[in-house]
UniProtKB/TrEMBL annotation:
Pfam families cross-referenced by the UniProt entry: HAGH_C, Lactamase_B
Family per similarity comment: Belongs to the metallo-beta-lactamase superfamily. Glyoxalase II family.
Protein keywords: Hydrolase, Metal-binding, Signal, Zinc
Keyword Hydrolase listed: yes
GO molecular function: hydroxyacylglutathione hydrolase activity; metal ion binding
Listed cofactors: Zn(2+)
Alphabetical GO biological process terms: methylglyoxal catabolic process to D-lactate via S-lactoyl-glutathione
Protein name: hydroxyacylglutathione hydrolase
Organism: Dracunculus medinensis (Guinea worm)
Domain of life: Eukaryota
Length: 257
């Protein structure tokens, strides 16, 4: 999806000496999502309820970048939503907890997450301000992987998929089986509305689509998406978000039967 209101933004930011890849805010009515790149190819997300100005950080690893974003957005950080325990997604939880002097909730399934304050399970319901969040247990990449499905009062929808679902691909099977990944992608996540926007944990889109093209050589949608992804790479722009509906068209791991 391309946002016309941001068409001239990369050039404008270059004039200011700011890299477009440093920060991108996706406005979703009552819900706002600020994309924060981290490490070499990770994504963190600042999830904001525009009404209450309460916020959660998804997969905190770079606390300095998080605190700067919280300050610049003028929001109150209330919680962290951790998809899984790997360092590149949860490596900042201890520092984040200490930085906010314990006045922050750390949500996740896996007790290997440092400073975990609230253990969640499949189907649990959370809130960030007026945003409603459902926890979806998707074991395979890790046994305790959680995706966070979020809906605002205007029925705008997003899902934070960590290392379960990528744009055009899926995560490695470190602690699970192919059947578990199938269930995660083709049963649980596939049931979400097609318009649900997908915010994944890494920028792997181009390499994923190159593989997808090798699997489905006659799928023109894959070729179109790959061309688009390469253009995004060249302009140093993000490829997130995707949508559940789009993934069903060009992601081979959501097209198996």
């Amino acid at each position: 999806m391309i946002y016309s209101k941001y068409f001239l933004l990369p050039t404008f930011l270059m004039v200011l000496g700011v890299k477009f890849s440093e920060i991108f805010s996706s406005v979703r009515n009552m819900m706002r999502i600020v994309v924060l790149p981290a490490l070499s190819d990770n994504y963190m997300y600042l999830l904001i309820d525009n009404t209450t100005k309460q916020a959660a950080i998804v997969d905190p690893v770079d606390v300095t970048k998080i605190t700067k974003a919280v300050e610049s957005e003028g929001v109150k950080l209330c919680s962290a939503l951790v998809t899984h325990h790997h360092y590149d997604h949860a490596g900042g939880t201890r520092e984040l907890f200490d930085t906010y002097k314990g006045q922050i909730s750390i949500y996740g399934f896996d007790e290997r997450i440092n400073k975990l304050t609230n253990k969640v399970a499949d189907g649990d319901k959370l809130t960030v301000g007026n945003l409603k969040i459902e926890c979806i247990h998707t074991p395979c990449h890790t046994s305790g992987h959680i995706c966070y499905y979020t809906v605002d009062d205007n029925n705008q929808k997003a899902v934070f998929t960590g290392d379960t679902l990528f744009i055009g691909g899926c995560g490695r099977f470190f602690e699970g089986t192919a059947q578990q990944m199938y269930d995660a992608l083709c049963v649980k996540l596939a049931k979400l509305p097609d318009e649900t926007e997908v915010y994944c944990g890494h920028e792997y889109t181009t390499s994923n689509l190159l593989f997808a093209r090798s699997v489905e050589k006659n799928n023109k949608k894959i070729e179109e998406k790959l061309k688009w992804s390469k253009m995004k790479d060249n302009s140093k722009e993000f490829t997130v978000p995707s949508t559940i509906g789009d993934e069903k068209i060009f992601n081979p791991f959501m097209r198996v039967s």
